[in-house]
UniProtKB/TrEMBL annotation:
<dbReference type="GO" id="GO:0034015">
    <property type="term" value="F:L-ribulose-5-phosphate 3-epimerase activity"/>
</dbReference>
<dbReference type="Pfam" id="PF01261">
    <property type="entry name" value="AP_endonuc_2"/>
</dbReference>
<dbReference type="GO" id="GO:0019852">
    <property type="term" value="P:L-ascorbic acid metabolic process"/>
</dbReference>
<dbReference type="InterPro" id="IPR036237">
    <property type="entry name" value="Xyl_isomerase-like_sf"/>
</dbReference>
<protein>
    <recommendedName>
        <fullName>L-ribulose-5-phosphate 3-epimerase</fullName>
    </recommendedName>
</protein>
<keyword id="KW-0413">Isomerase</keyword>
<dbReference type="InterPro" id="IPR004560">
    <property type="entry name" value="L-Ru-5P_3-Epase"/>
</dbReference>
<dbReference type="InterPro" id="IPR013022">
    <property type="entry name" value="Xyl_isomerase-like_TIM-brl"/>
</dbReference>
<dbReference type="GO" id="GO:0016861">
    <property type="term" value="F:intramolecular oxidoreductase activity, interconverting aldoses and ketoses"/>
</dbReference>
<feature type="domain" description="Xylose isomerase-like TIM barrel">
    <location>
        <begin position="25"/>
        <end position="255"/>
    </location>
</feature>
<dbReference type="InterPro" id="IPR050417">
    <property type="entry name" value="Sugar_Epim/Isomerase"/>
</dbReference>
Length: 284
């Protein structure tokens, strides 16, 4: 039995597929689990209001197919950020977070990945937005502790939290076992170019605080939809450092962009990174 698991981001598959069909496809190409998306679109946010019957059906589907949704990317708070200057938006943000935690609990999801933004569409944040962000984050972490669901920050593309170092500062400020770090390799690689720092050193700073990692490609200044192995992320070295600090959960983050056969990209990703992780596992 392997000592790690490799999952795939839900958005790597066409949105036209049902969740059951996505489970079947992910298992067919060789993944261990899927990361559920709850983004800012009404369609995805409505998942937070699924009925008990809908939740139970998805659990039964996971058991039937033999593969699970075991993490959640909660990017919906980008539109409703914890640090918003608008009180109604902050209230909505906490409501979204609480509903996401309850949904995770009902589905058996272990980790909710939070987007590391104090604000997003409101422009650059300030000391007030940071203050609101930390206050509301504390409330959210207390809810997560109640349900036993881990929250973990994704390192993003803005300077608020684009490195493991910055995420660690927030995690240590909150100081809860239910708030950790979930770095995105493409984003921290781009940050290393901006700040002229070593991406491997940044990864090492997360030792004891990193619960999983997004395997994503990037090029300087561009953060999405870059095909694997065509950018500048030094995947093998990064995955080695993550493995050395104890990370055993990985998700390939890629997007379906209209390819005739979406499984081609999935097969390439799962083959490429399973081979890397197998080799790393054999060395350590």
């Amino acid at each position: 039995m392997k000592k790690y698991v490799l999952g795939v981001y839900e958005k790597a598959m066409p949105n036209s597929l049902t969740l059951y069909e996505k489970l079947v496809a992910a298992k067919e190409v060789g993944y261990d689990f899927i990361e559920l998306s709850v983004d800012e679109t009404p369609e995805k946010l409505s998942r937070l209001d699924w009925s008990k019957e809908e939740r139970d059906q998805l659990v039964m589907d996971m058991k039937k197919v033999g593969i699970d949704f075991r993490s959640m990317a909660l990017s919906g708070q980008r539109k409703f950020p914890l640090g918003s200057m608008d009180e109604a938006t902050r209230i909505k943000s906490l409501e979204i977070l609480e509903k996401a935690i309850i949904l995770a609990n009902d589905l058996g999801i272990r980790v909710i990945q939070l987007a590391g933004y104090d604000v997003y569409y409101e422009g650059k944040g300030n000391e007030i937005t940071r203050k609101y962000f930390l206050e509301n984050l504390q409330k959210g972490v207390e809810i997560a502790a109640k349900y036993g669901v881990l929250l973990a920050f994704e390192t993003m593309e803005t300077d608020f939290m684009d490195t493991v170092k910055k995420a660690k500062e927030v995690v240590e400020y909150i100081n809860s076992p239910f708030l950790m770090i979930y770095p995105d390799l493409g984003n921290i690689k781009n940050a290393s170019v901006i700040y002229n720092n070593d991406v491997l050193d940044d990864i090492r700073l997360g030792k004891g605080k990193t619960v999983a990692a997004h395997i994503k490609e990037s090029i300087p200044g561009h953060y999405r939809e870059i095909p694997f192995l065509t950018g500048h992320v030094n995947f093998y070295e990064c995955l080695t450092e993550l493995y050395k600090i104890g990370v055993r959960r990985y998700v390939t983050e890629l997007w379906y962009t209209g390819a005739e056969d979406f499984k081609v990209d999935l097969r390439f990703a799962v083959k490429t990174f399973r081979e890397m992780l197998d080799k790393i596992e054999g060395e350590y």
